[in-house]
Each structure stands twice: as C-alpha cells, then as structure tokens.
C-alpha cells in the first residue's frame, strides 16, 4: 500500500460507499473514527503545504502527484493531467 494523498482519498470514498450500502451499512462509530483520522491527515497535509510554501521546497513524499502517462511517455513537468473531450453524434 502506498502512502499518498491518492490512497487516502480512495479509502475515504470506499468508506462513503460502505456507509451508503443499505444492505450492509458500516457501523456509525467506525465511520466516525475514519472521518476523524481523515481530518487529522488533511490537517497534516495543510501543514506540509505551508512548509513547502515557506521553504520553497518542490514537494513532499506525501503530496506527490500521480504519474500520468500517454502511450508510454510521462507528461512533461508542469502538466498535471490532460482532459480530452470528444463529440459523439
């Protein structure tokens, strides 16, 4: 398991899905504990961002962007993602 913000987001979305499952809902106390941990992680990420701004650092281990590739080639620095729109008709 990687320790990145993407992993945290995925776990939170999975928790939300478990909460919404009417047939087998997650226990409210467990969901509250997940939310509390998520809140702390977000707070630490805010501290990391403030640190990066204050020190002009290039990033941190936790706040790393995902590597996006197009046909085997990584995107150039500064480009975070590409959105393609297609017209159907």
Topology:
Blueprint: H1 5-20, H2 28-55, E1 69-70, E2 73-74
Helix pairs in contact: 1-2
What report would you give on this structure?
By secondary structure, this protein is mostly helical. Helix content is 49%, strand content 4%.
SS-derived structural category: mainly alpha
Q: How many helix segments?
A: 2
Rg is 18 Å
Helix coverage percent: 40-55%
- Could you spell the SSE succession in H and E letters? HHEE
Strand order of the largest sheet: 1-2
**Mind summarizing the main beta sheet?**
2 strands, antiparallel
Average pLDDT number: 75
DSSP, total strands? 2
Distance between the termini: 42 Å
Give the percentage of residues in beta strands: under 5%
Poorly predicted runs? none
| Shape assignment | flat
Note the main attributes of this structure.
single chain, mainly alpha, two-stranded antiparallel sheet, 2 strands, 4% strand
Structure, briefly:
With 89 residues, the chain is mostly helical.
